[in-house]
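Researcher: First entry.
Model:
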Amino acid sequence: MRDALDDFRSKRGDLIFAGLIYPFVGLAAAWLALGNDILPLLFPVAAGISLLGPLAATGFYELARRREAGLEAGWRHFFDIAKNPARDSIAVVGTILIALFGAWLVAAVLIYTAFMGTADPASPGAFLSALFGTANGWAMMIVGNLVGLGFAILAFAISAISLPMLVDRDVGAGPAMRASIEAVRRNPMVMTRWGLTIAVLLVVGSLPFFLGLAVVLPVLGYATWHLYTRVVDREALAAV
């Protein structure tokens, strides 16, 4: 994490805006999809946006790569990911993460309907009363969190290493995702701690009103890059 903080402080604080873009894009997309019915699903939407975090952080992986190589790493290089030889593979992994986000929203709707019915809450207060004051509300939160955990583990397993790897080397989406899953399997304690760290920092960064993500997302992006460089044998990749 120290290396990540050094990256963040190294003339790239002007990129904090990128940490604010992706949660609002996700919320806007959910609002368009769900309309005025978004209130009961506000927490699932906010939590589900974290599934897209690795994709949003690809620009930070590029900046960390350039800094490591001794190259210029100004703010404009954040968008160099569009010129990366592996951009199509990155798009494939990104599409899978977006599909997981959509599937999580569908699952959240089904879970809410199963426990709370199809009627819209009369008010935010009535919704909170039903959520915390009824057995169905507590059951819904328990089931929803367990299902959400499953989505989070899957997204983490396929993207934790694959996206920084693709920024670094054009190895293909399939091999990169397999390498990511294998890295998680071989380093369960390290990856579990890192996954929990991400979850805690994203929750902290979401308060208030996602403003903290302006710092959290860049730092997590840089930290993920450094995790990748420590977990993966990059010399072996270069020989492929």
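Researcher: Second entry.
Model:
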Amino acid sequence: MERPTALVTGATSGIGAEFAQQLGRSQHDLILVARDVVRLEAKAVRLRTEYGVNVEVLPADLVTDHGVASVCARLADSAKPVSMLVNNAGFSLVNAFERNTIDEESAHLRILAQTPMELAHAVLPGMLERGTGSIINVASVSAFIPRGTYGAAKSWLVSFSRFANLRYGPKGVRVTAVCPGFVHTEFHERMGANMRGVRPWMWLDAGRVVRVGLAANMAGKAVSIPSRRYATLMALNRLLPDRLAAAAGNRGR
């Protein structure tokens, strides 16, 4: 039997790298997408060596039309079907909305919401034709808190995942939004955020986030919050007025 193929965006670091690692371990062939060709090639060599799977590298800047088009073309290639799409690539902006340029905000919205939508749209027809497939959208608990445009974009991603899982799940295509809190990765360091105020209990391990997210997708769940403590906090947040929910969400900064 042919191995299933998973395409992972933002695959060279953090949660994306962990998805690639765990999917390679479970004998998925892989397509790794990121901007850094050197890191992509190095990651591909390690995965081929460790797990004996086929690994393609697809360098692409997913903020650009050209980069997104190249990945969409690969996803839509019926001769080499993709059985799982992991939309993980993204970044956050440190400054408040009014202090960012509109170009910065547009690129931010593009990679967090528009790009995952375009990639899902490209891969769905083949999955529906085959009657099977998985789409995992890496979102955030910020989606449930009125806190900046990062949370707003992730809220769109969660809502889209809920709709898509409801519509396409019965047709064999499971769609899941994975919503972690703070995760030990390079993400916050790369955005230049000061994380010294984040309490130790709020940090999650990337390996657990990915394991729980994959299990949730297999179970057909539309939303995965891979931590009981965060799930409890988000449930309580729904009961708070926006002003208090936003203040609670900002306590880690």
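Model: Note on the second entry: The CA atoms of residues 91 and 108 lie 7 Å apart.
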